[in-house]
Amino acid sequence: MDVSHNPFIQTAANYSVVVLFLVIFLAVFEVVTRYQNWVEIKKGNLAVAMATGGKIFGIANIFRYSIAQNDSLPQMMAWGLFGFVLLLAGYFIFEFLTPRFNIDEEIENDNRAVGLISMVISIGLSFVIGSGID
67-76 long-range contacts, Cβ below 8 Å, gap at least 24? Predict the structure, then answer.
């Protein structure tokens, strides 16, 4: 039996890789934001929950496109990593384009409007990034 063409094994492999990358990428976001995601979420900070949820959705969506467009696990991983780098760049661009206030500070202070915009930016960019994945 050729395991490389077994859809159950391929699905399990894709799932495992995406969960691992999701944990790693969320750790990277934890480092680049000034607030602690899980501490703030535990306190009930809805703005952080929305921003983090958008990041999770964005990363998963990028990998969804990557899985759909690539037959090999290494290619899927490479495109997923590239997509994450672009999503991370989008986060820094959002911060740069709002010089009147600090995005991280607003989200940490539970500014839900900023949390919602952050979530929508992550989700929106993930579709744009995903559409370019070969």
Answer: 67/14, 67/18, 69/133, 69/134, 70/133, 70/134, 73/13, 73/14, 73/17, 76/14, 76/17
